[in-house]
Amino acid sequence: MSAASRVWLFDLDNTLHDANPRVFPWINRAMTDYLMEHLALDEAEADALRMSYWQRYGATLLGMIRHHGTDPAHFLKATHDFPDLRSLLVFKRALPPLLRRLPGRKYLFSNGPQAYANAVLAHIGARRNFAAVFGIEALGLQPKPQPRAFSAVLRALKLPAQRCILVEDSLENLRMARALGMKTVWISSAPGKPACVDVKLGSILEIGRAAWLAR
Question: Which domains are assigned to the chain?
Fold first, then answer.
């Protein structure tokens, strides 16, 4: 299989940038505030419900839709309306040229909303590296690792899973990708290399070491 025939699917948060220090705490706070306001909960109740829906459905949004009839567009906009997103981002400025040198077409495959994903890529200087961006709206509001999320991307690209390489920080998402027939790259400093992982990298800046997967 040639490099031109295989495509890369990149996760966003904690793969292309480090969301843990600032971005995720901001989003979690915004979601808790949203639940407090719209469900008339106190902070502890709202925070517990946010976590419960995330653990049960894979996304707080899905719990809000299922149990409260929340408008997804309103929820996503309200919880990702950063006053200064750029100041919260932690990323490697060397990443865009590394992605340019990586053989094969590249797409973003994120559980985050479309506008947020595009904004992050623009701020880190990597938007031009990606042929298209698939946010949660493009996935039919079904987050990874739900099979329907993967199916939505594969249908849009008109590709079989065997022609894709998923680059992720989440082992759960990589397990699903491998089960579907994708190649997998795990971005992690954790010990060990599970069977669902083809290549493990300590940093996204090592992505060149996975270039052989595109052959």
Answer: 3-18+89-214 (3.40.50.1000), 23-79 (1.10.150.450)
